[in-house]
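hey
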């Protein structure tokens, strides 16, 4: 069960900061794959914190830190060697095979239980004819959700809405939904023609979207999908 929106905003911040760990982080990543709105929250946190990266300077760790790491690794290798030797003496080849299988399971099992989160990648830039304003469009490969970042200063009449369309080669426009002109938008692209070379377009429609299922207003932004 996915928590309330305000709690998800807090979790998104902890996820981006890296303070969300272990099972809660794995559970959050499962939600992230399935929830476009949550992907938008994560993207907002990432964009908001990105300028802080420029404030940090890399600092080389002290020599004793590396020495401690080497000692710990050497100790772990000694423990593994001792365990293998004990098993082999006590159980022979059968024990050795069982031990090897157990070690392999410990390595592979976490990877099969927790699927790593694939961050959205930019797939299109939608621009006006004069290229003065541009939308950034990203695709999440796991949830098939498109995230759209609007340009600044894009104003539309209060009785109009922006509608996003996917246009396959030689086909008719397919509506992907209404998008915001002032905030990030997330729309599902599952089963839609989001393929290399297809077009995306944004038209100005009556409030609530096109009444016909096809663009009725002026097409303001267009761009091709590059996967």
């Amino acid at each position: 069960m996915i928590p309330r929106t305000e709690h998800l905003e807090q979790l998104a911040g902890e996820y981006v900061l890296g303070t969300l760990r272990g099972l809660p982080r794995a559970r959050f990543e499962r939600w992230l794959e399935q929830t476009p709105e949550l992907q938008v929250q994560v993207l907002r946190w990432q964009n908001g914190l990105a300028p802080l990266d420029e404030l940090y300077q890399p600092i080389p760790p002290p020599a004793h830190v590396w020495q401690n790491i080497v000692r710990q690794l050497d100790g772990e290798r000694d423990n593994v060697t001792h365990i293998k030797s004990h098993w082999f003496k006590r159980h022979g080849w059968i024990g050795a095979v069982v031990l090897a299988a157990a070690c392999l399971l410990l390595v592979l099992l976490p990877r099969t239980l927790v699927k790593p989160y694939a961050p959205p990648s930019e797939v299109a830039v939608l621009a006006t004819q004069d290229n003065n304003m541009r939308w950034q469009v990203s695709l999440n490969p796991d949830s098939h959700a498109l995230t759209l970042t609007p340009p600044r200063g894009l104003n539309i009449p209060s009785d109009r809405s922006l509608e996003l369309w996917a246009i396959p080669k030689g086909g008719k426009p397919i509506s992907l939904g209404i998008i915001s002109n002032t905030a990030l938008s997330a729309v599902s692209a599952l089963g839609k023609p989001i393929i290399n070379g297809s077009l995306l377009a944004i038209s100005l429609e009556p409030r609530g979207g096109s009444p016909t299922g096809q663009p009725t207003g002026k097409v303001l932004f267009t761009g091709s999908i590059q996967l």
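Strands lie at 121-127, 134-140, 145-149, 160-167, 174-179, 185-188, 199-206, 219-224. The two ends are 33 Å apart (CA to CA).
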